Amino acid sequence: MDSASTESCPMKGGDGLYSYTQNSLFQREGVENALLLINEAIAEKLHLEQIISSSPSKAFTVADLGCSVGPNSVIAVQNIIESVKLKYQSYGSHNQNDLEFQALFNDLVSNDFNTLFKFLPSDRQYFAAGVPGCFQGRLFPKSSLHFVHSSYALHWLLSTPKELMDKNSPAFNKGRIYYNNSAKEVGEAYSAQFAKDMESFLAARAEELVDGGLMALVLVCLPDDVPPSQSTASGITDLLEAALLDMAKEGLVSEDKVDSFNLPRYNPTPRELEGLIKINACFSIERMERIFPSKTKLAMASDNGVVISHLRAIWEGILKEHFGAEIIDELFGRLLRKLEESSPFTQRLKHEHMIELFVLLKRNMS
Asked: Quick one: pLDDT at residue 301?
């Protein structure tokens, strides 16, 4: 069977009960917490005059990668544009109208761009366009971007490693759907796939960003020196795995279907991420720091119903693609019951065994 791929499985569109629109408040808080860091980055690190002088159209271009259906992406893009405007005004000798802006919103071809466009402000002072495609590859012309933003997207792999489905491979992940409690070869395969995807991502952005251009990333990471089995992500995937195995025992899904399913996502450690950026060598790391969740976010994370709706908005597409639409309601119902019975998962939440990381990169001179 083919390895699971994210190419045809975006976040759940529309604005219904389980849509990403209604269930992305966790991500929104992280985006909003990063706004001040981005403002500081633009004020201190963006050499705007140099960049604009090399652009014949005097258009400043922002790209948001992994925009999904829009609410959080629009907030981030609007903040970037307002910060650049303030920087431009600070030069004094320029007319504000001299500088135009365009925002390019990227996600998978099957993303619900119609819902995204509904969130664009009617009074926006920038040109906007949707750009379909996988961000692990090239999306834009060379040296056409000035600022790239991406939040809560880079942990998605282009596909799961093929060796996870090879019965003759030591990385064959029978009966498991993730790498957290699997053989070390499984974790190594996931790590290698993330490294490959990250190199492709950085190489593509190095082509597309102008010299001195900035890239702001928000990622969910596993703390350095914490085993994957102790992470919050491990806790919830263990419960999803248990629900699928129960359904396989009852004949509601086939065992082969479970054996051939592996979630195509990977959370690097900060040290791992830093190493990959340095290997690429096209960017300097200007800032790398943790974003801390608020009490409100931690309270939401302790509400089982909120957690399940959030996970359904993210996972439903890829689960439906592999197992079929007919099991989705039953699967998430079982996941909710397991979550309600799981004190170990609650304990992991209290210890915050995942971190949100803000990373600011600057394109080196080519």
From this structure: 77
pLDDT tens-digit map of 266-288: 999 999 999 999 999 999 999 99
Q: DSSP for 272-288?
A: HHHHHHHHH-SEEEEEE
pTM of the model: 0.93
Residue 94: the pLDDT is 60
DSSP-derived 3-state class of residue 196: helix
Cα atoms in the Cβ-side hemisphere of radius 13 Å centred on 256: 3
201 close to 136: Cβ distance less than 8 angstroms: yes
Do the Cβ atoms of 68 and 14 come closer than 8 Å?
Answer: no
37-53, pLDDT tens digit by residue?
Answer: 999 999 999 988 877 77
CA dihedral 256, 257, 260, 265 (to 10 degrees): -160
- What is the number of other CB atoms lying within 10 angstroms of the CB of residue 56? 6
Q: CA-CA-CA-CA torsion for 145, 127, 74, 5, nearest 10 degrees? A: -60
- The structure tokens listed for 146 are 């000035």
C-alpha pair distances (Å), 314 with each of 12, 69, 106, 156, 359: 7, 12, 17, 11, 23
